[in-house]
Write a structure and sequence with these properties.
The complex is a heterodimer.
Chain A lengths: L6 H17 L2 H8 L7 H10 L17 H14 L5 H15 L2 H12 L5 E4 L15 E5 L2 E12 L6 E8 L2 E8 L5 E7 L5 E12 L4 E2 L5 H37 L1 E2 L2 E2 L4 H28 L4 H29 L10 H14 L4 H14 L1
Parallel strand pairs in A: 1-4
Antiparallel strand pairs in A: 2-3, 3-7, 4-5, 5-8, 6-7, 9-10
Helix pairs in contact in A: 1-4, 4-7, 4-8, 5-6, 5-7, 7-8, 7-9, 7-10, 8-9, 9-10, 9-11
Chain B lengths: L6 H17 L2 H9 L5 H14 L17 H14 L6 H14 L2 H12 L5 E4 L15 E5 L6 E12 L6 E7 L10 E7 L5 E7 L5 E14 L10 H12 L6 H17 L1 E2 L2 E2 L4 H31 L7 H22 L26 H13 L10 H12 L3
Parallel strand pairs in B: 1-4
Antiparallel strand pairs in B: 2-3, 3-7, 4-5, 6-7, 8-9
The chains are: A alpha+beta, B alpha+beta.
Chain lengths: 374, 406
């Protein structure tokens, strides 16, 4: 048993830390959030140079053969930097699903392009009314001579406005299947918008969208297991991102407690505030433990063990993130609720992480239900 | 990053398991697992068995007869002992006074006291808290003044100690006493070892909420203590006391015991029926079990992280042990609360006789009614865990000051 990163991992962490400090300062990030793309295409290119876009892919497809612990390390740093780039949706989630379920030809066509920063993907799966359940899909795929025709609507597709292709889930005669769809496919319309945390998403409608026979990812009717695995992988990454944000918020808040003076002394001298700060530190350390557990189990071949650990981690990290985020705002007083300070922006991202791919109640329930089987 | 135990660590776990299976007396583990009342000899007998195996003091260095195990091995040992239902090794001698004697005692004190701690001969208790000095321990007022006499120099001790755990069985007590009123209050405290048979010592029981006698008041009236029983230097006792508190927090997370109690909670929730269905099928109750399990999963890994860091740095845990103490005690309290709640109506009966090892049950009541005696009692008893060993609020002060620099 050991909890240490390797020399290579530490070097990557250091590279990302320096990049965030030097080239991803908060005011720069604010300008990006208000830009047309909503993120930094130059940073995306830098990520490709760092190798993090290639991290989770096999070497045969231009990847670095990294594992979920490598992803955890990257996500923690991206969290600290409050990075807006669609790393989770394009690389971790869609890239991971192509890696695990794609055909040789699909892997050859897509993974090197994702790794090189030339192509972005987004998962178009969740639908209005289905909430977080992964098997609630009404979108249909009708087989015809040329492949399939897709009809339906997808809700809040993360990273959609910048995506070159979508991974679309749809029901065909066999059950749930996954298809690759070009963003510009005729019949596909997209309503893009910023999210609360400054990222980008879109609602998508498909009316008679035709895809070819090579668009099917994995076996027909066999997509649910791939989606579950992909979402687990993404949730483990989100847990690590949240831990990075909580660490940053704790440092910022601690500094504020030491410098902000009221009643003639630093407010950190007041025990009521000290104990809140201690609670934030405890919550963050515990969350870090759970994010580590999720990362280590995310690569597990045992789907039940993987899902159980990720559900446990996502529930717990979300609860911790709520405490840390809310208290960081509270301890900053009036400054905590203004747009000018980074604290509110960290808090918003933490909150949105908690609502992405299942909230704390959903994951607690999922974990809780495993007690019935035990 | 690897959360799996190594092959050597797994082999070590198997060795501990085999030993426990062969040598832990069934009548003792039945009491532990069933929440029955423990007697002095249960603890002493188990300590002697461990000592015979060479495992009497897992955290001691080998030159004092300890195992010399690294923190991960100690953790595995504690986890297996908890799972098997071994009695807790009481900390007062092994984990509290012994490290102080090793670090600050003289050779004569080390030779005199340490072998009798590890072999289970001497039962130690703690004389720290006083009625007027709880969290503010340094304000203590039990006085010791030095007198010269023909039969050797002595301290004469007068005062009162409280919250003394299991002192009714003790052979020795280690005490913080005031030897000076000069300067800062911390600078006038000394660390004395006192024979409980010395004339002038009176032990009075304090009965806790669960009706049991676990703690005491200890009164000192002109108690003569040879100066040879002073640890280190006079008026330096606060330094030794702080050192001791650092050691007290090792193993404080109690992960092994809480894992066992979580399992017991799940079993109770499967046995107890609610409206004709097993209680575990009640989503509200099941979610509360799940929530405690999440806390415990996180604590287990946090504990392992602290242990791994200790092993690498070769040091006792620092202020991060306060995190383990706070979370560990909160989890223990949540578990006792849910175990009690799982019993429904049968959480109510107060049957102290059911805590006896030979209690056969009552034909008028279902078998699980026996559990109420221990489970509701434990709930009330375990409110102590967030109070003792430095209350959880004091632990947050430690985190604020020692980790955060506030």
């Amino acid at each position: 048993m050991n909890f240490n990163y390797t020399e290579e991992q530490l070097a990557l962490q250091d590279t990302l830390r320096r990049f965030i400090a030097k080239d991803y300062a908060f005011e720069h990030r604010r300008a990006l959030a208000n830009s047309a793309d909503g993120f930094d295409r130059a940073a995306w290119k830098t990520f490709a140079d760092f190798g993090i876009l290639a991290l989770p892919f096999p070497e045969d497809f231009g990847g670095l053969n990294g594992n979920a612990v490598d992803t955890m390390l990257v996500m923690e740093m991206l969290g600290r930097g409050l990075a807006l780039e669609p790393y989770v949706s394009s690389v971790v989630l869609c890239g991971g699903m192509i890696r695990d379920a794609g055909s040789q030809a699909q892997k050859e066509a897509l993974l090197p392009a994702i790794a090189g920063g030339e192509m972005m993907l987004a998962l178009a799966h969740h639908e209005a009314g289905g909430r977080y359940a992964l098997d609630r899909v009404a979108t249909t795929a009708a087989a015809n001579g040329n492949g399939w025709q897709l009809d339906g609507a997808k809700a809040v597709v993360l990273g959609a406005p910048s995506a070159d292709k979508f991974l679309v889930s749809a029901r065909d005669g066999q059950g749930l299947s996954l298809f690759l769809v070009d963003a510009g496919a005729p019949g596909l319309t997209l309503r893009g918008y910023p999210t609360q945390d400054g990222a980008r998403a879109a609602d998508i409608k498909m009316a008679g969208v035709q895809v070819g026979p090579d668009a099917l990812v994995g076996a027909a009717g066999d997509a649910l297991a791939s989606i579950e695995r992909g979402i687990d992988y993404a949730n483990a990454a989100l847990c690590a991102e949240a831990v990075g944000i909580m660490s940053a918020l704790n440092e910022i808040t601690l500094e504020y407690l030491k410098t902000r003076k009221q009643f003639g002394q630093p407010i950190g001298k007041f025990q009521a505030l000290q104990h809140r700060m201690a609670d934030m530190v405890i919550a963050t350390e515990q969350a870090r433990s759970m994010a580590t557990l999720a990362a280590v189990r995310a690569d597990s071949a045992d789907a039940a063990a993987r899902s159980r650990a990720v559900a446990a981690a996502k529930a717990y990290v979300t609860q911790s993130a709520r405490l840390v985020g809310q208290q960081a705002v509270q301890l900053h007083g009036g400054m905590g609720v203004v747009d000018e300070l980074n604290v509110g922006h960290y808090f918003k991202r933490l909150t949105m992480i908690g609502l992405t791919f299942g909230d704390a109640d959903y994951h607690l329930g999922k974990f809780s239900d495993t007690l019935l089987a035990a | 990053m690897d959360l799996n135990f190594t092959a050597e660590e797994q082999a070590f776990r198997e060795e501990v398991r085999a030993f426990l299976s062969a040598r832990l007396p069934a009548e003792i583990s039945r009491k532990v697992l069933g929440g029955k009342r423990m007697e002095k000899n249960d603890f002493v007998a188990w300590q002697k068995i461990l000592h015979q195996q060479g495992w009497g003091a897992v955290a001691w260095p080998t030159n004092y007869g300890g195992t010399g195990w690294n923190p991960v091995q100690q953790h595995i040992f504690e986890e297996e002992c908890a799972d098997a239902g071994a009695p807790m090794q009481l900390p007062f001698g092994l984990k509290m006074v012994a490290p102080v004697i090793m670090a600050f005692g003289n050779a004569a004190q080390q030779q005199r006291f340490l072998p009798r701690i590890i072999d289970g001969t001497d039962w130690w208790c703690q004389g720290y808290s006083e009625p007027g000095s709880g969290s503010d321990l340094a304000s203590l007022s039990t006085r010791a003044h030095r007198v010269e006499s023909a039969d050797g120099d002595h301290y004469v001790v007068n005062g009162q100690k409280t919250w003394n755990t299991l002192g009714q069985y003790a052979d020795w007590i280690f005490c913080l006493v005031r030897t000076s009123s000069e300067g800062r209050q911390q600078a006038g405290i000394s660390f004395l070892l006192i024979d409980m048979k010395t004339p002038g010592i009176t032990v009075r029981p304090i009965i806790m909420m669960d009706g049991e006698h676990e703690i005491n008041e200890v009164w000192f009236e002109d108690v003569r203590v040879p100066t040879a029983n002073l640890i280190g230097e006079e008026n330096k006792g606060w330094t030794y006391a702080k050192f001791l508190l650092g050691h007290e927090r090792t193993g404080i997370a109690g992960v092994g015991r809480s894992k066992r109690e979580l399992q017991k909670l799940k079993e109770l929730a499967k046995q107890e029926s609610a409206d004709g269905r097993p209680l575990i099928e009640d989503q509200r109750f099941r979610d509360r079990i799940a929530q405690v399990e999440l806390e415990l999963m996180a604590l287990e890994i946090t504990n392992l992280r602290v242990i791994s860091a200790e092993g690498e740095k070769q040091r006792a845990p620092g202020p991060e042990a306060s995190i383990l103490k706070i979370k560990g005690s909160e989890i223990q309290q949540m578990l006792t609360e849910l175990q009690m709640q799982a019993l429904g109506h049968y959480a109510l009966p107060y049957l102290p006789e059911a805590l006896d090892a030979d209690w056969k049950g009552d034909p008028m009541m279902p078998a699980y009614a026996d559990d109420a005696a221990s489970l509701s009692g434990h709930y009330f008893n375990y409110r102590k865990t967030s109070i003792y060993g430095g209350s959880n609020e004091i632990q947050k002060n430690i985190i604020s000051q020692m980790i955060l620099g506030l």
